[in-house]
Amino acid sequence: MFMDQNPGACYSQVFLSPSGDVPPAEVYASRRRSLLQKINSIGIFCGVPRDPGSEEVFFSTWTKFVQDPAFLFLTGINQAGCFLILNPFAKTPDEREILFLPPKDVSKEFWFGKRLGYSDDLAEVKALTGFKTVLPASEFWNYLLTILKFQKTDFVYAFYLEFLSEGKTKKISDDHNALFAAELRKRLTPLAVSLKTLAEPHFDLRVVLDPLRIENSRTAQLWTGNAFKETLSHLKTFKNERELGLFLDYQMQIQSDGDLAFPTIVAGGRNACCLHYVKKDEPLRPGDLVLLDFGVRSGTQHSDISRTIPVNGKFDPLQRLLYGLVLDAQKFHEREVKPGAFLLDLDRNVWNFIWDELQRRFVSKGGAFKLFYDKRPHGVSHLIGEQIHEGDPFRCYMAKPLQAGMLISNEPGLYGYFEIVIDGVRYAENIGIRIEDDLLLTPSGCENISKDILREPDELESLITKEFYK
């Protein structure tokens, strides 16, 4: 929720306020203090350096700005051209957290609304952000190199995406963080100071949700469930994937304080066998299933839900058999999730469960199938947080033990060609089924915080059919 912290001020989507009773400035300051306790040298974060489209003349200049989640998590500032230094060596508390802002530009604000910026009067900026020390972005390099001349240290930290996993280095080399790290190394070399990545300690802090972010996650689930139920009650009115998707998106956003968590997937019939289907303009055909993957943001948190439903309100026997198999796999996974478990192991167990149950429930009864993948089409779980796919982009976290407070997806699926004779009738079709809920790790196991979003086949049929026969 974008919130004005001072009477008369009207910031234009440049400061992100978490939902809740705690003042936003204190929320972000608390996160910075927590990270300061984890590091033993200076830590540096570079926000996204430019507004979207500014590097291409044909691009729309009013494209919405999206800040790097790492910078946003610690500052709340959704604006280009900013830097952050965390200095555990500082002699005074005010110098332990230093924000660097671009200059105040009143002429730009005439076009795009009020911005945070460095000026002679910083009282409002400091009150809004919680920083005691705010300096101009133009002074960033000079300030950093000056303190390094007086502070004896062999290395400094910066946030860039580089990880050591199974003895191999995995890294992103071309995003703004990597480019900033390269420039930083060049400037540190004459000082004989090396550079270490802050990515791992930062993610270790970020992926365990605090009570405020857990509450925001629950709110996102409530909004998503309301939207899904309302969409089911209107299912008979939608002629194609686009109409269904537009209605579902509207129902989520009309309740929410933020945007969609990601572009909604609406995939009817064989299109559901494409995992990230984006075409979304084909007819909805009676007798087909339609796969929905959708979610919305509350504060800085997200829901991530998948449901697969019958277009005409009734699963045929083949669809019901396979749907029940995927649903049971999801329930199996939910029972296995607990602190100390590893997603790598849990993931493998679910796909083995699905394979074994296909043999037992389907092949043993004369069914034949061809999967469109080699046993494992995608991960069953990913972390959810500031990003819909939270944590390191290489998912090294899957080899780390789960902790209470983490939020993960639970999304087994089945995608392929299936045929079988049931009660003398032959059924054969390309089918894609995914059922996804969000699991909050508790001290002893997990809680399905999306359990109220309909998923049982009888419940889905009851609501949809009720509307079809009004």
Describe this structure in words.
By secondary structure, the protein is an alpha+beta fold. The protein folds into 2 domains: 24-206, Creatinase/prolidase N-terminal domain (Creatine Amidinohydrolase, Chain A, domain 1); 211-468, Alpha-Beta Complex (Creatine Amidinohydrolase), CATH 3.90.230.10. It has 12 helices and 19 strands. The protein has helices at residues 24-36, 69-75, 106-112, 123-129, 140-150, 176-188, 199-206, 211-232, 241-253, 317-336, 343-362, 457-468, and strands at 43-46, 83-86, 97-101, 133-136, 155-158, 162-165, 168-171, 194-197, 265-268, 289-294, 297-298, 301-302, 305-310, 368-371, 407-410, 413-422, 425-434, 437-441, 446-448. Helix 8 packs across helix 9 (241-253) and helix 10 (317-336) packs antiparallel against helix 11. The protein is elongated. The chain starts with 23 loop residues before the first helix and ends with a helix. Mean pLDDT is 92; it is low at 1-9.
Keyword list:
alpha+beta; Creatine Amidinohydrolase, Chain A, domain 1; three-stranded antiparallel beta sheet; 33% helix; elongated
Mean pLDDT: 92
Cα distance, first to last residue? Answer: 39 Å
CATH-assigned fold name of the largest domain: Creatine Amidinohydrolase
CATH homologous superfamily descriptor of the largest domain = Creatinase/methionine aminopeptidase superfamily
How much strand? 15-25%
Instruction: Give the low-pLDDT segments.
Output: 1-9
Q: Walk across the major sheet and give the strand order.
A: 4-3-2-1-5-8
Helix amount: 25-40%
Q: Give the biggest beta sheet.
A: 6 strands, mixed
Q: How many helices?
A: 12
